[in-house]
Amino acid sequence: MAAMDPASLTIRELRERLLAAPGPLEPQLAERLRLDPRQGARRLAEVLARRERLLRAEQTRLERLRARERFLWRSGCGSVAGVDEAGVGPLAGPVVAAAVFFAPGSAALPLDDSKRLPAAARSRLAAAIRATAAGIGIGLADVGEIERLNIYHAALLAMRRAVEALPHPPDHVLVDARVIPGLSVPQEAIVGGDGRHYAIAAASILAKTHRDALMVELHHRHPRYGFDRHKGYGTAAHLAALRAHGPCPAHRRAFGPVAAAGRSVAGEGRQAP
Questions:
Q1: What is the C-alpha to C-alpha distance for residues 202 and 100, in angstroms, rounded to an integer?
Q2: Where exactly are the structural domains of the chain?
Q3: Residue 66: is its pLDDT beyond 90?
Q4: Per DSSP, what are the bridge partners of residue 140?
Q5: Pick from 15, 35, 43, 127: CA 20 to 30 A from residue 151's CA?
Q6: Pick from 140, 141, 142: which is nearest to 250 by CA?
Q7: In what order do the strands lie in the sheet with 187-190?
Q8: Which pTM value belongs to this model?
């Protein structure tokens, strides 16, 4: 690439060759593009420079995201599991947790907090995590356990089950904002951990995508409520369906809007589904 003479190529040829090339431009080639008398070549130089800045920023972000795991790996922890949950806020469905760890030195995926990612990106990354992780565990607490324990303790139960579902006990656990009761391994509760630590970000993506799939299954059993669209959250459409039909077995009846809908159905003498 360094031997390329930009002047011998059309702007279209330059774009096709340079935009498809991996890695940064050679400095000499970048300089020749910047000095090219053609406006299209100079614009291409700007595009490529911007791409390189974004790539460097992303590499820096991922290095920060993995810093704690790298430190623990160097300290002798061969498996550092991240743990997170999905589904504390919805009015229906289970709360789901995931635990995941990666082999020391494994290549980094472009992970982030699942809440910052569109659904398509979450699905792609979930598949990549499952293909590259050294260990994955999924745990959940169902609606009955949520009602019996309350949602906070049900989420902790799901998290413990996720850790226990790993192929072997981890050496260290990084948890998003909670301390999981009953674990015999060291753990750290990190506020905002799904946006600050790689393994927790991976767990947040797995928990979210797994729960979303469960809510699609619930939609097929209870199609009146639109679980496939809102995943059980209290959207306007969901609340309208609750008022129209009352709660179904998938709803968390201890949650205020669900309880109110149940009372309304009972008051009107209608049979809840």
A1: 7
A2: 6-65, 77-205, 218-268
A3: yes
A4: 96
A5: 127
A6: 142
A7: 135-141, 95-101, 80-86, 172-176, 187-190
A8: 0.84
CA–CA dist 262, 146 (Å, integer): 17
Q: Which runs of E-coded beta strand occur in 66-190? A: 80-86, 95-101, 135-141, 172-176, 187-190
Instruction: Tell me the CA distances in angstroms from 177 to 34, 159, 191, one per residue in order.
Output: 48, 12, 4
6-31 residue pLDDT tens: 888 999 988 988 888 877 788 888 88
Q: Please, which residues have CB within 8 angstroms of residue 49's CB and are 6 or more apart in sequence?
A: 30
CA gap 59, 269 in Å, rounded: 61
- What percentage of the chain reaches a pLDDT higher than 90? 75
CATH topology of domain 77-205: Nucleotidyltransferase; domain 5 (3.30.420)
Q: What is the DSSP string of 172-228?
A: EEEEES---TT--S-EEEETTGGGT-HHHHHHHHHHHHHHHHHHHHHHHHSGGG-HH
